[in-house]
Amino acid sequence: MKVDGRCHCDFITFEAEIEPEKVWLCHCTDCQTLSGSAFRTVAPTRKGAFTLLSGQVKNYVKIGTSGARRLHGFCPECGSPIYSTAEGDEPKVYNLRVGTIQQRYDLVPRRQIWCRSVLPWTTDIKSQERFEMGPDRRP
Predict the structure, then answer these.
(1) Up-side HSE of residue 29: CA atoms within 13 Å toward CB?
(2) Rounded to whole angstroms, how far apart are CA atoms 134 and 68?
(3) pLDDT mean values, one per 10 residues, the chain (139 residues)
(4) DSSP string, the chain
(5) CA angle at residue 32 from 81 to 55, to 5 degrees?
(6) In Å, how far from its chain's centre is CA 127?
């Protein structure tokens, strides 16, 4: 599936070929911290199928549990996380951050990983109070 995306401020734009059946949620504590949320939603690209169209990402190198070095690319202007990938120049897979992809409504996660770190309240969020926009704050 061909997708395109951008950071919040439009400094970074990209396009990619992804495998929508491989979209997942990651509950690891690193993803919780790096995303500032309870989990991260990831869409892997096909090998060598990511193109940065504008801007230049800033990379942060994270050492994974396995000891592997992972590049985490984000916008240097607004801080939006864009991807993670392996080091090196060879064609590789980019794990795109689904929130930056324009076609995100079509990307339904099919699996969850690192569930030993899952925050318990995320397993039943349908039961929580919901608002179409922000909650009404009138006195």
Answers:
(1) 4
(2) 40
(3) 97 96 93 91 94 96 86 96 91 95 96 92 77 67
(4) -EEEEE-TTSS-EEEEEE-GGG-EEE--HHHHHHHTSS-EEEEEEEEEEEEEEES--EEEEEE-TTS-EEEEEE-TTT--EEEEEESSSS---EEEEGGGBTTGGG----EEE-GGG--GGGGGGGGS---SSSPP---
(5) 5
(6) 25
